[in-house]
Design brief:
Blueprint: H1 3-13, E1 25-26, E2 41-47, E3 50-52, E4 57-59, E5 62-68, E6 75-81, H2 90-94, H3 98-103, E7 109-115, E8 121-125, E9 129-130, E10 134-139, H4 148-156, E11 176-182
Parallel strand pairs: 2-5, 4-11
Antiparallel strand pairs: 1-8, 2-3, 5-9, 6-7, 6-10, 7-8, 10-11
Amino acid sequence: MNKKTISNLRIVLTAGAATLAPLALAACGDDADAAGLDDGVLTVDLSDFSFGDLPDEVPAGTRLAVENGSQSELHELVAMRLPDDEHRSAAEIVHGNLEEMFASGELAPATVLLAAPDGEQIAAVGDGTLEEPGRYLILCAIPTGADPAEYLAAAQGSDGPPQVEGGAPHFTHGMFDEITVTAG
């Protein structure tokens, strides 16, 4: 992915984060039961660079929550429902025409949850609830090495995507996955 493509993708994915004035804080979920859910909440561990405890499928109405286990990186969980006729894997999409899917309107964030290292969850788009059955692409588009405090401050005070120093988005390091939401 070239620098312009990455910049354009950051604009789309962080548009929700730019509307964080004021930041909405939500508590993370408790320990999960054997199915990964605790009272309808699935807590996903964000680390460098993966989504831990993310099952293959969850029932509609599941609310995602995030905890960041990183020592230095801010992470986010962006969940986007894939079109019903999309059969490629998350890897094929991320390494294929992800930017085109955004530009055409095929993909839009259903929810965006952020968490700084050892910080509280921040709901930037939605509250984490996945209502509509289907396949969802999950990814993190935070720039590698971005200062968490700088990023969050820029997101809060900006009417566009946060403009912060950093490298390629985390999804280029493999921080992407998919989950299927099944009918209740």
